[in-house]
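Worked example 3 (structure in, sequence out).
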C-alpha cells in the first residue's frame, strides 16, 4: 500500500513542482526523483515534504490517517 501512497505523492509533485522558485525550473521527473531520493532513500520524509510538497498537500490514501502532511510523514517513517 505504500507504493500507492508514493504514487499519489509523485503525481501531486508532478502537478505542483512546489520546490521550484522562479529562478529554478525543474522537470517533473527531476522533482519526483529528488523527492523519492530524499524521502525514501535518505530516510528524510519530513525534509522532503518541506522542500517539495505544497503547503496544502492532502494524501487521499486510507493508509495516512487524516491525510495531512504530518500523518503521511509518520506513515513513511513506520
Amino acid at each position: 500500500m505504500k507504493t500507492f501512497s508514493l504514487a499519489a505523492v509523485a503525481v501531486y509533485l508532478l502537478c505542483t513542482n512546489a520546490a521550484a522558485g522562479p529562478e529554478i525550473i525543474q522537470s517533473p521527473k527531476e522533482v519526483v526523483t529528488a523527492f523519492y531520493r530524499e524521502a525514501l532513500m535518505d530516510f528524510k520524509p519530513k525534509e522532503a515534504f518541506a522542500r517539495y510538497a505544497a503547503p496544502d498537500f492532502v494524501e487521499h490514501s486510507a493508509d495516512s490517517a487524516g491525510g495531512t502532511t504530518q500523518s503521511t510523514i509518520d506513515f513513511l517513517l513506520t
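Notes: The chain has a mean pLDDT of 82. Residues 2-16+25-77 form one domain.
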